[in-house]
Automatic annotation (TrEMBL), chain A:
This is Alkylation response protein AidB-like acyl-CoA dehydrogenase. Keywords: Oxidoreductase. It comes from the Bacteria. It comes from Leucobacter exalbidus. SUPFAM superfamilies: Acyl-CoA dehydrogenase NM domain-like. One of its GO terms (molecular function) is acyl-CoA dehydrogenase activity. One of its GO terms (cellular component) is plasma membrane.
Automatic annotation (TrEMBL), chain B:
The keyword Flavoprotein applies. This is Alkylation response protein AidB-like acyl-CoA dehydrogenase. Signal peptide: none annotated. One of its GO terms (molecular function) is acyl-CoA dehydrogenase activity. It comes from Leucobacter exalbidus. Keywords: FAD, Flavoprotein, Oxidoreductase.
Amino acid sequence: MRTDLGTENEAWRAEIRAFLDAELPADHAFNPEFDDAPEQWAIAVEFSKKVAAKGWIGLTWPKEYGGKGLTPVANQIFLEEMYAADAPIINSVGIFLAAGTILVGGSEEQKQRLLPEIASMNTLWAEGLTEPEAGSDLGSLKTKAVQDGDDWIITGQKAFTSWGPMSDVLYVAARTGAEDGRNDAISIFLVDLKSEGVTLHPMRNYGGGVQSTTYLDHVRVSSSSLIGEAGMGWKYIMRAFYASGTVEPIYAMQESRLRELVAYCKQIPGKLEDPRVQADLAELAGIVQSQRLMAYEIIGDNAAGRQTPWGGGVQQIAAKEYEPLFAQIFDRVLGPTSQLRSDSKLAPMGGKPEAWYRQSFANHAGGTSQLKRMVLATRGLGLSR
Amino acid sequence: MMELAWGEDFDALVDVSKSAFVRYSPLEERTNSVPFADQIAQFAELGWLQLSDPNVAADEGVPLTTIAAVFVEMGRALADTPLLDLIVARDAALAAGSEHAAALAERIGDGEAIVLPVFPDAAIAGSEWGGGLTIENGVLNGTAFAIGYADQAEAFLVHAVGAENVLAVVEAGAAVTVEPMSNMGDHEVFALSFANVAVPAESVLARGADADRAAKLASQRGSVLRAAQVYGAGLRLLDITVLYAQQRHQFGGPIGRFQAVQYLCTDIAVAAHLTSAHVRSAAGALDAGADAQPHLGLLHKQAIKTATHMVHCAHEVHAGIGYMVESNVHLFTNAAKRWQFDFGSAAHTDAEIVSALDRIYVGA
């Protein structure tokens, strides 16, 4: 259902596809839910380095910091194609969250030093935002950073650290202000994961991968590890998510799956003509297209310098709620065989639907659906808190 | 090129439409209905009967993405008018392409001819109702259901099927019966029956594939504008529901502070906004002359979903008071219920979407 985005953009899309055809390994299956299988990780790293070598990491960043200075639309097309191909993009924490933070709040020296490292995939980042008692309500985080001369001493515990064991540095949000201070008391630090006092404990997840619990026991970092200014972390985080001007194109991945599902159904006599199946497939198509439209609305608003109070809120809710819904409807079309794992000969579509279903529950990053609805209700619609 | 945008003069047309539809708004003055003939005169004066033209590329004429502004506001005001019906009839006449058809389109556009479209719904025509119009050897037979404003029409623009499908003008008096179909939509619709009505050659605007194409294109454009109306109604229903959630107090505060109530309000907001996005997408595809069918199918699905769900949420928030006629919620309930079926049956829409998926993804 994709609309032509114009000659230049479509040529760019073709260039990405040609690259993927040439460089993406045939056996590229990569569990996006924090896969730690060594052989898959090795493939992902090798492929990601090739993407970096093309200069395609940080497409919207300024050229002087290792970026390409391209438009958000060009970046969205790149992401769409990567997602559609199930290409293993590692270091998403570095590329989006960390780089976004550095771009909006980092010093010139930090931009010059850190961004090219991310763009070249030389430095891989892990996420250290969430805590056992501070997930969607990040303002409640307990990890503390206390100044000690020119250094900071960080102590606390982080949960769901993605890509922890495979990463080089941790993006840490820590409290540097008063206990009851919320938005103005959080600062962002870069912590070397090999530092003394850092301990990672694996937390296996339902999707088949691993995250970590990260313990920070009086970890000493230099003042240059503070990104931007102290106390500005909350604002940096909020703005970092929008720094690229793009939207994570989960819809592109879903559309690939839908395409595969339609082709699969067509092989079964009468399946595509079954009204119940038609209703489900139409629903899946609607889920894909609605998200695509929301993404492009936001990109258009960004390009025009408009705020996106509606599109932004609706996109976030849709993204949160449509991912598990997509998986549920997908499995309903396939029936009981959708539960068969990839090592079963009878598993449809190589057993991928079974993994997709499990992974669809990981839709809470950046705040739950309930949180997004509360934000839209209170900030967008003006209802009481 | 960005996928989603309203037309260039959308906002300006919104302003004009808002002031125009205040006079029609049943929410503010339900008894102040504007007489049918006066409505058409006002539409003609505003130039709204000439806004649409399927033969003119969007960069030359007024794009659907702009025209939609009128219908968003018409939906917001919940105004009951024949504007869409007249535009669809005119679009079909223009798309038919003949000189005769162009003359008819001009008269509709000037507000001089009240010609309403009678394009039997394929989804209903095959049902137990048995509706549908056939034409054989220039003789029209059959029944068309749910035709709005049929009692006010001077003539009907009929799409009839036969050995050779036709798009033809039939004088209103030729209908054997114009029978009201009482319904919960609070909107008068009629069953039109024709029995052995001779349709002379000069009344035929297009034949065969040309007739089908003209009727289909006009219907497609009409469905985009109808969905814009659903979006507008959703915005207004959201406004009154949020206001109620702010004003109604229970357990020591406004009910809008409860997450369950907030979710119901956000459901209306999400549904309305997604409809808006699909309207812009489908209108943009039609304006660009691209294959709009996949976009239209998804628009229809979203509009049906929105029409169904938004009133459910509004009733949940309003609870008992929403069930009373002193509240305005039932007005939206009736209108949305009617619109819900203006996009064809859900099954028909699903089948069309899957057909498009098959064609695009597999290459059937």
